[in-house]
């Protein structure tokens, strides 16, 4: 479910909610941020990799041990709808150069093997039940380190120019 103001929206799709949040962000940036003095970077969507269900219906990723090379380079892969929503919602700012997009969608779609899956509880507690896997957050070190390297490159490039 999603909440909009005081109203709970039980039937709102994730795509619609995400689109509304990007629209709200875009309006806030236009009204509240001095873009002549602020370098705004938005990280694009990082896909989840549940197989055989979703987070609440028994989906899992614990058997994934290799990157998904089939997801590399395609524009129709996992996370593309969300990426398109971000670009469309922030287009006015992106076009002016006042917001920079850190596009991690494609590179992250490939890493179906980078989630904590059954191992998120830590060594003291042990493995999580198979039906309670985490296939949306990322292991460290790993995928987020690549995002940090990209962010560092964007900041240094801007600083040097």
UniProtKB/TrEMBL annotation:
GO cellular component, one term: Golgi apparatus
Domain Trichome birefringence-like C-terminal: 1-153
Protein name: Trichome birefringence-like C-terminal domain-containing protein
One of the record's GO molecular function terms: O-acetyltransferase activity
Family: Belongs to the PC-esterase family. TBL subfamily.
InterPro entries assigned: TBL, TBL_C
Origin: domain of life: Eukaryota
């Amino acid at each position: 479910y999603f909440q909009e103001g005081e109203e709970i929206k039980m039937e709102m799709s994730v795509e619609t909610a995400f689109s509304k949040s990007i629209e709200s962000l875009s309006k806030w940036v236009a009204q509240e941020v001095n873009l002549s003095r602020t370098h705004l970077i938005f990280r694009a969507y990082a896909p989840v990799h549940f197989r055989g269900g979703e987070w609440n219906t028994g989906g899992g990723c614990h058997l994934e041990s290799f990157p998904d090379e089939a997801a590399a380079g395609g524009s129709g892969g996992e996370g593309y709808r969300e990426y398109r929503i971000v670009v469309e919602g922030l287009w006015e700012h992106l076009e002016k150069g006042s917001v920079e997009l850190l596009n991690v969608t494609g590179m992250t779609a490939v890493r179906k093997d980078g989630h904590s899956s059954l191992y998120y509880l830590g060594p003291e507690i042990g493995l999580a039940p198979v039906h309670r896997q985490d296939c949306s957050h990322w292991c460290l070190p790993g995928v987020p380190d690549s995002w940090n390297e990209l962010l560092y490159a964007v900041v240094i490039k801007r600083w040097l120019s």
